[in-house]
Write a structure and sequence with these properties.
Length: 338
């Protein structure tokens, strides 16, 4: 959405050529477009452009720490969080325009403040993810640690009751080791959780074989996905984020690979990736290219979001209720036919 918002700040618009020749297979993507400068647009067209800009700016969520957490939990975006959450060009254009027209004296300062708060929001998002990950990590691994330390830490033996023996016939085993304090297990779990989170920040994925495995089209090869998912910019090869969102089902990746390698991160991802500003919770919207977005815009569309929300232990009960309702309907139909 950020890049879609940035495209609205351009001075050149790609407008459909409605007089172009069409075939029965012509659609919104194949219909030719003409480049038109913003100065050449009519007054009514400018009204439409300004309305679209205002609606998008109003509906696009502002930068929050929760947005940073969502981006950090997605392996496709965690390395580019800083570039993804910078203030969009359209917001900068609007602020500058208000200052030039004299409608807002504090817009420049507000824009500079927004740009300067990016690092602060990223830090808050990382701290929020760190705290949430500690809780999940302790819930997963803390029970075994607490059980094993229950007799040694919570109720240590009373050494005053231990008798003294000088008989050489008594066979002594290993000496008793002094137990650690109750704060040590918690600190140790936090250190282990932070270590796992640090490994997650550095963990990279080769998305080409992942896309090849998830592809529904058997005709696509590894070379095809290499061309689709990778781009070269200034002699640097990097992943095409939009292509990754189109061809990679991140929930599927977590189930197949991520949950085994990072179980605590996967548990957080199941909760956070279905939240706003994910497109899974939004209705179908128009795009800046003037055509309605398809049903599968991201890896967390409505169906996947519903599956994430419905907890696993409720699914069996839901299926039982569905089967029971079907049997009741069958009995009613049978009674009506008699």
């Amino acid at each position: 959405m950020k890049y879609a918002l940035d495209r609205l700040a351009t001075d050149t618009f790609h407008i459909y050529d409605l007089d172009a020749a069409r075939s029965p297979k012509t659609n919104e993507k194949s219909l030719p477009r003409n480049d038109v400068q913003i100065d050449a647009l009519s007054d009514k067209a400018m009204i439409c452009v300004n309305r679209i800009k205002g609606q998008v700016m109003k509906r696009l969520s502002t930068l929050t720490a929760e947005s940073v957490v969502i981006l950090l939990l997605d392996p496709r975006t965690k390395f580019t969080v800083d570039s993804l959450i910078h203030p969009p060009k359209l917001r900068q254009e609007a602020a500058v325009g208000r200052v030039v027209s004299g409608e807002g004296s504090d817009d420049t300062a507000e824009l500079a403040e927004d740009a300067g708060d990016v690092d602060t929001v990223i830090s808050k998002g990382k701290q929020m993810l760190r705290n949430a990950h500690r809780e999940v990590f302790r819930a997963i691994h803390g029970s075994n640690t607490n059980n094993s330390l229950h007799t040694d830490v919570d109720t240590p033996p009373n050494l005053d009751l231990v008798p003294s023996v000088d008989d050489e016939l008594v066979m002594c085993g290993a000496p008793l080791v002094a137990s650690s304090s109750s704060n040590t297990p918690v600190a140790s779990l936090h250190d282990r959780a932070d270590e796992v989170l640090a490994k997650w920040y550095q963990h990279s994925v080769n998305w080409v074989p992942v896309a090849l495995q998830q592809a529904s089209d058997d005709q696509l090869t590894e070379a095809d996905f290499t061309k689709l998912l990778l781009v070269r910019r200034r002699n640097d090869v990097c992943w095409n984020l939009q292509a990754l969102c189109e061809h990679i089902d991140i929930c599927h990746w977590y189930r197949e690979t991520g949950a085994a390698t990072f179980p605590s991160i996967a548990a957080l991802a199941r909760v956070w990736l279905g939240r706003s500003p994910s497109n899974a919770l939004q209705e179908r919207v128009f795009s800046t290219g003037a055509f309605v977005m398809g049903p599968l815009r991201t890896s967390t569309d409505k169906r996947r979001a519903e599956i994430q929300v419905l907890m696993k232990h409720n699914r069996a009960e839901i299926r039982r209720m569905e089967h029971a309702s079907i049997r009741v309907c069958e009995k009613i139909d049978h009674a009506a036919s008699l």
